[in-house]
Amino acid sequence: MQKQVIQFLKDNRERHLEELQDFLKIPSISSLSEHKEDTLRGAQWVEQELHNIGFQEAKIMETDGHPVVYGEYIADGNAPTVLVYGHYDVQPVDPVHLWDSEPFEPTIRDEKIYARGATDDKGQVFMHLKVMEAVINQDDTPPVNFKVLIEGEEEIGSPNLPKFADEHANQLNADLVIVSDSALVEKGKPTITYGLRGLAGIQIDVEGANSDLHSGEYGGGVVNPIHALVKIVDSFRDDNNFIQVEDFYRDIPELSQDERDALARVSVNEDQLKDDLGVPALDGEAGYSYVERTSVRPTLEVNGIYGGFQGEGIKTVLPNQATAKITCRLVPDQDPEHIVQQLTKHVHSKAPVGVNVSVTPFDKGKPYVTPFDHPVIQKAAQAYETVYQNDTAYVRGGGSIPIVAELDRILNVPVVLMGFGLPDENLHAPNEHFHLENFDQGMETLVHYMYLLGEQ
Amino acid sequence: MQKQVIQFLKDNRERHLEELQDFLKIPSISSLSEHKEDTLRGAQWVEQELHNIGFQEAKIMETDGHPVVYGEYIADGNAPTVLVYGHYDVQPVDPVHLWDSEPFEPTIRDEKIYARGATDDKGQVFMHLKVMEAVINQDDTPPVNFKVLIEGEEEIGSPNLPKFADEHANQLNADLVIVSDSALVEKGKPTITYGLRGLAGIQIDVEGANSDLHSGEYGGGVVNPIHALVKIVDSFRDDNNFIQVEDFYRDIPELSQDERDALARVSVNEDQLKDDLGVPALDGEAGYSYVERTSVRPTLEVNGIYGGFQGEGIKTVLPNQATAKITCRLVPDQDPEHIVQQLTKHVHSKAPVGVNVSVTPFDKGKPYVTPFDHPVIQKAAQAYETVYQNDTAYVRGGGSIPIVAELDRILNVPVVLMGFGLPDENLHAPNEHFHLENFDQGMETLVHYMYLLGEQ
Questions:
Q1: Domain Peptidase M20 dimerisation, which positions (chains A, B) (predicted)?
Q2: What are the residue ranges spanned by the domains of chain B?
Q3: According to the model, what pLDDT value does residue A364 have?
Q4: Which of A397, B289, B302, B391 could join A226 in a cystine, given CB atoms 3.0 to 4.6 angstroms apart?
């Protein structure tokens, strides 16, 4: 039956790519209020699609923010139930001038589809929908029951989903959760992510005088908010790139030699990576490898900084405000609440006189790790290997999907993170894209996985 | 005759204010290339005005940048010749939303005229033009000959004027230069500026990867250009706000006790100033007073900083570039060339691995001081005191008019800096304005000055 289902996918590939482009055209940027309606259109597209592929139930469900789309197709009360989690919202697109094609006009070049959301996460959500469609269409006795939960706030930290999942825990109940919102470690290498970093962040606003001042009249006499901000931000790390926020590392267990050995086997060609990124060197926290720094170590990154004159040439102004946006990637057992408290305390302790400094926390997510010897994870690896003909890598992801730790806690079933992106697909950056090779092979993998799960 | 000339000014006040508004309507922002044509219109307005007021010669003269307007009215070969220097270009207007009225739609409220350029420097240039018009119109034997040199690049550091003045030194030859591009120390207090700070600056560009990166995938592994920039910028000063650039203070003579005493007599109500500016404290270089820090001490100010995400909310990006714009106010005998070299050296010495850092110098200006016991300066004080009925303050200005030191060098005659603005008129900031009280009293002062200069 797998063959027949896979053939259906092949036969319908052209239609699928057109539908995917329709989905990618919707600028469902959850972080920007001017895209509120567009974000809703993203939800409506998913709801309609669930009806189209034959789901018995599909609905948009309100939250305090952007809505959730829920759907289910129950074929057989005795079959295992799979809950697919994903998100229909996307990141902002600036700087737009660095895109080679419009971010919301999907374009296929060299067997890659370019658009905001292509790999993160609309493209991968879409693959699941098409696999479900194929199974429902071709198989009178599908091997599993399907539930889907597609949210619209992943890119802003899923502020409303934990409450939603708590309130609808019975409805969401399943035997496992599948999340495809991550990447293969490299082209052709099946990858299961058994851990994710958490997220915590703050915005720092420094206010000086009630308007910009002339740097000749007032320069030297009044504290410059940019200087104050720079002093605060630079105090976050020492020369070894160790984070100087009190108790930042307190709750992180020492990395075991076994885990360090396992991570050392993850092959990253650092010279190649340097060339690909165009940077003169890779650097970070002293004493840890690149792989460790980007997966099992916490980070503190300034995502944006701004204040004063940004135009061409000179403007000899002493600006009246400056802002920095900072997020930390967290690892077990760092607690996001605690980290935000410590960040806030740190900022205030470093704030110089002469300016007013305020701190606004962003939404938070807990870090997550799970044992990877669970049968449903092993079956995922088997499905991958059938298609990719290559061993599975088990990694801890550097990114954050805050809701994963929450779903783990609320539903108390294994969460299988099997992604089909690639690490250089520019997610969150200009020219985001998705390789169609993994679009095809990924769907085949998912078909095999569904039938492996159905074998009781 | 002074009375008759002053009466003419009074009789024509309404027409004058209308003409001034026409001048202020021209968005002659020299630093922005999209305003190149507007800047030229500023020059054309001055040229036409010189013809209108009866100058024998008035012309626009090309430079490698925005043009210069030159004009002359020679009444009597034996009378002293006054060269008035000023500028028709203005600062940018951002942030525009903080203006209460449009920056290029001049508005009179509470006997103040609001517009970009109202006080810096179109308003003050205009006063000279109207005084010349009144003298030429009313007096068959004017007491002095007039030359004017009005440039269009003061706000970008007068990059082309030194060469122009060098090449036209004979044409510009005069007995003194008058510059009205500064302020009274306080309302009702005649003020002669006998020194000015110089200017030097650089732009620092930090480049990381060839595009923005996902902070989850790459965070911790790759150097964040914002971190690198913040590290560099924070290294410029220590906790006492002493500039840490090597040899920065090397050429500054120790301030004499006499000069410190004189500066201590300049009254600044720091509590009032704090309230007016809305800052919790005034602070700067340790061991120096507010007045010292803003006039006789050099500064290093970040005028603008930017990199990464600036929108609403979070974008968990590791940005690929960050920029800071920095200018220093210099005091005698700091050399701008030397300071730019030292700044550049400092930046490169502090640049961390993993990023490419480049430095672009801005245009420079030398600091300036002159003895204030020269007769033409004493006559200026006498003219001021006749109208304002108050003693003259002699101060060193915190701002920079780089061309002053150049005119001093090239023409080798006294440069009299007598301004009519006020310190809180928001020059270089939103809601720039000019008090009409000083517009009227300033023109009267200038009339008296011309006749005092004519007494041989």
A1: 194-352
A2: 2-196+367-454, 198-252+298-361
A3: 82
A4: B302
